[in-house]
Amino acid sequence: MGKVYVFDHPLIQHKLTHIRQIETGTKDFRELVDEVATLMAFEITRDLPLEEIDIETPVSPAKGKILSGKKLAIVPILRAGIGMVDGILKLIPAAKVGHVGLYRDPETLKPIEYYVKLPSDVEERDFILVDPMLATGGSAVEAINSLKKRGAKSIKFLCLVAAPEGVEEIQRHHEDVDIYIAALDEKLNEKGYIVPGLGDAGDRLFGTK
Ligand code: URA
């Protein structure tokens, strides 16, 4: 079963609290999501492999360590996932960025993919799939299907706030996908919102209603 990592770093929790607050406006919400995404990117990249190289400091020869050139791709689930991309790119600027768009079929209520664009070398990349909210897990599971169908072998799912239902849904369908979250909330309400959550992440990011 995939692991769940909850990032309880004080800076992440502090910023997430402001993100949650109803009085936080679009500008601050966007900036805070961006900052938390950067902090989460720092944690999620802990396992990146390093290689040793020979260097010269001004004082003497030395051994140094650099990233061994693992290829990464960030894939936001449209549209709210877009709000986390720039924050992650601040730490891993060479990552490629794909996109997955899903809509909900009005009859079956199932998520259907309407747009997928990924880097061409899918099989060689490690994917970070991002969406601020993991609610029912339906979109996340379908987005992971979309990546796997195109050859993705390594996928991490990154979100700000998750409901237990969403975590279970990913674990049930994709046991090879680890989940990285800033907070595991209580439940979903009857409208599918995470409680206490932060409301509609897309609307709050883009100032729509
Ligand atoms: N999507 C959101 O933006 N918010 C929720 O609470 C659930 C899904």
TrEMBL record:
<feature type="domain" description="Phosphoribosyltransferase">
    <location>
        <begin position="6"/>
        <end position="208"/>
    </location>
</feature>
<dbReference type="GO" id="GO:0004845">
    <property type="term" value="F:uracil phosphoribosyltransferase activity"/>
</dbReference>
<dbReference type="GO" id="GO:0000287">
    <property type="term" value="F:magnesium ion binding"/>
</dbReference>
<comment type="similarity">
    <text>Belongs to the UPRTase family.</text>
</comment>
<keyword id="KW-0328">Glycosyltransferase</keyword>
<keyword id="KW-0021">Allosteric enzyme</keyword>
<dbReference type="Pfam" id="PF14681">
    <property type="entry name" value="UPRTase"/>
</dbReference>
<dbReference type="GO" id="GO:0006223">
    <property type="term" value="P:uracil salvage"/>
</dbReference>
<feature type="binding site">
    <location>
        <position position="79"/>
    </location>
    <ligand>
        <name>5-phospho-alpha-D-ribose 1-diphosphate</name>
    </ligand>
</feature>
<keyword id="KW-0547">Nucleotide-binding</keyword>
<protein>
    <recommendedName>
        <fullName>Uracil phosphoribosyltransferase</fullName>
        <ecNumber>2.4.2.9</ecNumber>
    </recommendedName>
</protein>
<dbReference type="InterPro" id="IPR050054">
    <property type="entry name" value="UPRTase/APRTase"/>
</dbReference>
<feature type="binding site">
    <location>
        <begin position="199"/>
        <end position="201"/>
    </location>
    <ligand>
        <name>uracil</name>
    </ligand>
</feature>
<dbReference type="InterPro" id="IPR005765">
    <property type="entry name" value="UPRT"/>
</dbReference>
<dbReference type="InterPro" id="IPR034332">
    <property type="entry name" value="Upp_B"/>
</dbReference>
<dbReference type="InterPro" id="IPR000836">
    <property type="entry name" value="PRTase_dom"/>
</dbReference>
<dbReference type="GO" id="GO:0005737">
    <property type="term" value="C:cytoplasm"/>
</dbReference>
<dbReference type="InterPro" id="IPR029057">
    <property type="entry name" value="PRTase-like"/>
</dbReference>
<feature type="binding site">
    <location>
        <position position="194"/>
    </location>
    <ligand>
        <name>uracil</name>
    </ligand>
</feature>
<keyword id="KW-0342">GTP-binding</keyword>
<keyword id="KW-0808">Transferase</keyword>
<comment type="function">
    <text>Catalyzes the conversion of uracil and 5-phospho-alpha-D-ribose 1-diphosphate (PRPP) to UMP and diphosphate.</text>
</comment>
<feature type="binding site">
    <location>
        <position position="104"/>
    </location>
    <ligand>
        <name>5-phospho-alpha-D-ribose 1-diphosphate</name>
    </ligand>
</feature>
<feature type="binding site">
    <location>
        <begin position="131"/>
        <end position="139"/>
    </location>
    <ligand>
        <name>5-phospho-alpha-D-ribose 1-diphosphate</name>
    </ligand>
</feature>
<feature type="binding site">
    <location>
        <position position="200"/>
    </location>
    <ligand>
        <name>5-phospho-alpha-D-ribose 1-diphosphate</name>
    </ligand>
</feature>
<dbReference type="GO" id="GO:0044206">
    <property type="term" value="P:UMP salvage"/>
</dbReference>
<keyword id="KW-0460">Magnesium</keyword>
<comment type="pathway">
    <text>Pyrimidine metabolism; UMP biosynthesis via salvage pathway; UMP from uracil: step 1/1.</text>
</comment>
<dbReference type="GO" id="GO:0005525">
    <property type="term" value="F:GTP binding"/>
</dbReference>
